[in-house]
Amino acid sequence: MSDVxxxxxxxxxxxxxxxxRVANPGDAIALSGPLGAGKTSIARGLLAALGLMEEAPxxxxxxxxxxxxxxxxxxxxxxxxxRLEHADEADELGLDEARLDALLVVEWPERLPDSAWEDAxxxxxxxxxxxxxxxTAKVPPSWKARWPLT
Length: 150
Description:
This protein has a single domain (about 1-140), classed as P-loop containing nucleotide triphosphate hydrolases (Rossmann fold, 3-Layer(aba) Sandwich), CATH 3.40.50. Helix content is about 20%, strand content about 25%. The protein contains three helices and seven strands, in the order βαβαββαβββ. Helix 1 crosses helix 2.
C-alpha cells in the first residue's frame, strides 16, 4: 500500500488525469471513501484526460454512466454503487461483460464482495482534519508496473 496526500479538488482532478495516462480497457479502478471525499473529482479528472469535454455528472442516480469514442479515447463505465441495497442487484448491471472492452471506474465498490475487485486498483480516500484527503492505494499485480503514478 502507498499513500498520497491530495490538498484540493484540483489535485484530485490532476490525480485522475494521471490515472488516465496508464489505465486501459479491461482495468478496474475502485474508489472508496465517505461522501465528499473526492471520489467523483478523481473520476472527473480521469474522464477529462480521456477526452470528455463536459464535466462528468455523478452517476449516483443512473448507477452506470457509459462513455465511448469519440467522446472518450476508449470506452469507460463510471459506476456508482451507493444506491445498491443488495450485492445481487449488481448482476443486472452486466459489469463483468462490459469490462472486457471498457475501463471500469467504480465509486462505493464496498457494496459488492471483495472478490469482485481482486484485480482492481483500490483507492481509498480518507478526509484528514486539515482538509486534505489521504489516498491509500491497494495495488494489484496487474498495476505494479504502472504504480506509483509519475
